[in-house]
Design a protein that fits this description.
Layout (H helix, E strand, L loop, with lengths): L27 H7 L7 H4 L16 H9 L26 E6 L5 H15 L5 E5 L4 H13 L3 H6 L6 H12 L6 E3 L6 H11 L3 E5 L12 H17 L3 E7 L9 H7 L2 E7 L6 E9 L7 E6 L4 E3 L25
Helix pairs in contact: 5-7
Length: about 325
């Protein structure tokens, strides 16, 4: 696939109405006799969304919806840690959007990569696409090697092993290498058009955008509109099937940048809030949960080993259906 020209989006239907008028040489009776389709521009006649095999059509999931009621299907979430661990309160699900926000240095990327690698190691059929605007894929892999090998990240980063550290590092790398067919890293330029095309091409089950304020949509220059359009494009991507995980910067006041666009568009929203000065105790606050109970997570960050730890649940039960609405008073969600 050729990504050389990102200036135009071949998937976008134009909203320009200047060419919607009939040709000047055609009189109204002639148009009526021949039919409207004869003079409509191509973008109105063509029901394709400009990609082969993807015709524009209404939702056809009625039968699946009815079957889900009969079979009592529930929203299923990926297990991101061992059963009974609070980390499983972090919701990632196919067809859903999860946003994780945090100030710089709180560990957004670290936590997300830990969860994603846990998922691909737990589910052999799942593939992940990571689009990180700031870090090299090798650095992301080094962090996970340090965690799995239980060797300080600085040792892995500098390749200066002592004693048995070298063998532990190589063993951890040996665990990760078989995942290369199911873990893909997007390369620049980072645009939503290229991301959607790549996600479709490799049939990704989970797409990670790190981070959303650095992504762009072709033709949009206003920052606020850029964030809004990125969220809209991410929602469209999720509706095609993959789970979409977006990392977001926070303002100095601790709010999502362009808060209304981010929070209202997603299904689940979390914020990493440090509880002490050295950033080892962090609370992952759940600010929105559309299909589950809102539950916070108490985290401890081991910066040396590049790992987040969470305590066990006191009682590991699935939340009761619709408990997220129990305290709703009919007002705004936020």
């Amino acid at each position: 696939m050729n990504y050389a020209n990102d200036s135009a989006d071949p998937w976008r239907v134009t909203s320009d109405t200047s060419s919607f008028a009939p040709p000047p040489e055609a009189s109204p009776p002639e148009i009526a006799a021949k039919g409207m389709q004869d003079w409509r521009p191509d973008e109105l006649r063509d029901t394709s969304d400009k990609r082969p095999g993807h015709a524009v059509k209404p939702w056809d999931g009625w039968a699946d919806w009815q079957r889900s009621l009969q079979e009592q299907d529930r929203q299923s979430f990926f297990r991101v840690a061992a059963s009974g661990n609070q980390l499983n309160r972090f919701r990632i699900a196919k067809g859903r959007m999860t946003v994780l926000g945090g100030q710089q240095g709180t560990g957004k990327t670290l936590l997300t990569m830990q969860l994603l690698f846990n998922i691909v190691m737990e589910y052999p059929e799942i593939s992940v696409l990571v689009a990180n605007c700031e870090m090299d894929p090798g650095e992301l892999l080094d962090r996970n090697v340090a965690r799995l090998a239980e060797v300080p990240y600085a040792v892995v980063r500098d390749r200066r092993y002592r004693g048995g550290q070298r063998q532990r590092v190589l063993d951890a790398a040996g665990e990760i290498m078989p995942l290369k067919e199911r873990v893909s890293f997007m390369q620049p330029p980072f645009s939503m058009e290229r991301l959607k095309a790549l996600a479709e091409r490799i049939e990704a089950d989970i797409v990670c955008i790190d981070y959303l304020q650095r992504f762009r949509v072709s033709g949009v220059t206003d920052f606020r509109m850029q964030v809004s359009d990125v969220m809209s494009e991410a929602r469209e991507l999720a509706m095609r099937g993959p789970a979409v995980v977006l990392l977001s910067a926070l303002s100095r006041q601790g709010e999502f940048r362009e808060s209304s666009e981010v929070e209202f568009a997603c299904d689940y929203a979390y914020k990493l809030v440090p509880q002490n000065e050295d950033g080892t105790e962090i609370k992952c606050e759940c600010h929105k949960a559309r299909n589950a109970a809102k539950e916070n997570i108490d985290l401890t960050c081991n910066h040396s080993m590049q790992e987040f730890l969470a305590p066990a649940e006191d009682q590991f039960d699935e939340p009761e259906p619709h408990t997220e609405f129990a305290a709703w008073d009919g007002g705004s969600e936020f």
